[in-house]
Write a structure and sequence with these properties.
alpha+beta, Alpha-Beta Plaits, 4 domains, five-stranded mixed sheet, 12 helices, elongated, DUF7348
Length: 359
């Protein structure tokens, strides 16, 4: 790689250069350069000093063509980070001096300039205002694989895009190549799918066709689609694809002609097909929903009914751990639940003493 932006530009100008407001051509032994602010000429062999006034344009061209990863998706992601499409080069360079930040899931990426070189700070968005010295430093993007394994409570994270990424770490000084590698370790394939969506080329595999591909122990899921309607898929999407469970934005529906009414979420990057977690859960629900509904009779006060409903809601929304032990006004308070169990459940755990039928 040519290490001199000016000499590299002089060489490339033989074929003509037009990028981000910079136009460069060659005529005889002269390099002709135009920007929105300046029109300059420089000797092809020694262009640096004559082009000093447009140095930001030259450095900018050099970065995007000879430093940044050239894979289209990664290149577009880096441009998106610094809002390259909406700001002229001098304006953008001024902003980069202070740092330009974007959120990507639970990641916070800040692009800056250090001696005219782009550097990237990557951390959890919850640590946006913390000093890097107060966080655990990493310089190898492969360290991201270890960070993603466990949540803050030490529990395994089976879904990389679950909103449970632990905080307290920082990659403070990555170059462009290592930044996109680290992001890909945190959220695999999200950059690629985000780019495909922007290009109108996201290949979506909807629920019906995804389930039709299942084999082995997961093949049972296909039987769920033999009933009329697709309410069951709405329930799956509501359970699994909410922002509280996954940071992707669901783009798949029941099939190409049958959109789901359940909101797909607000994530930056799209979800192109039901993931392995959805398939695994659907297998369990397929077996569960295959049983006939029966009628059970229980006696509950209105308050007890509302309390059971509140408990289900609190568990579904992950609020149980936030309920203080002394907050007995909360219907999902542990003491109130224990009282309900003592009153309504027999020694075998049957609600109202009514046994569950095997039929």
């Amino acid at each position: 790689m040519d290490t001199s932006p000016y000499e590299a530009l002089a060489e490339a100008a033989a074929d003509g250069v037009e990028f981000d407001g910079l136009v460069a051509t060659r005529e005889g032994g002269q390099l002709l350069v135009e920007t929105p602010e300046e029109t300059l000429t420089a000797p092809v062999e020694t262009p640096r000093s004559a082009l000093a006034e447009v140095g930001e344009y030259v450095e900018n061209w050099f970065f995007w063509h000879q430093v940044a990863p050239q894979a289209e998706s990664r290149w577009a992601f880096l441009r998106w980070l610094e809002r390259a499409g909406g700001h002229a080069v001098p304006e953008r360079y001024d902003a980069l001096e202070d740092g330009l930040s974007r959120s990507w899931g639970q990641l916070r990426v800040t692009a800056t300039l250090d001696d005219d070189q782009r550097r990237y700070d990557l951390r959890h968005e919850a640590d946006a205002d913390r000093a890097a010295a107060d966080l655990q430093r990493s310089d190898d993007p492969r360290d991201a694989r270890d960070i993603t394994k466990l949540d803050a409570d030490g529990e395994y994270r089976p879904l990389k895009t679950a909103p449970t990424l632990r905080s307290g770490w920082v990659f403070p000084d990555l170059d462009a190549t290592d930044l996109v590698a680290a992001v890909d370790f945190f959220y695999p394939a999200t950059i690629e799918n985000w780019h495909r969506e922007r290009e109108g080329d996201l290949d979506i595999s909807h629920w019906h066709e995804t389930m039709a591909r299942q084999t082995g122990i997961y093949g049972v899921v296909e039987t769920w689609d033999r009933q009329e309607g697709h309410d069951h898929v709405e329930w799956v999407a509501e359970a699994c694809c909410d922002d509280s469970q996954c940071l992707k934005r669901r783009e798949w529906d029941y099939d190409a002609e049958t959109p789901l009414e359940t909101d797909g979420g607000s994530g930056v990057f799209p979800c192109r097909e039901p993931c392995s977690i959805v398939v695994s859960a659907a297998r369990q629900w397929t077996k569960q929903e295959g049983k006939q509904a029966l009628t059970y009779e229980f006696e509950l006060t209105p308050t007890e009914k509302e309390q059971l409903e509140a408990v289900v809601d609190a568990v579904a929304e992950g609020r149980i751990d936030d309920i203080r032990p002394a907050d007995v006004r909360n219907e999902a308070n542990q003491l109130r639940i224990r009282f309900l169990r003592a009153k309504l459940f027999d020694d075998d755990g049957n609600l109202g003493g009514v046994q569950t039928s095997d039929e």
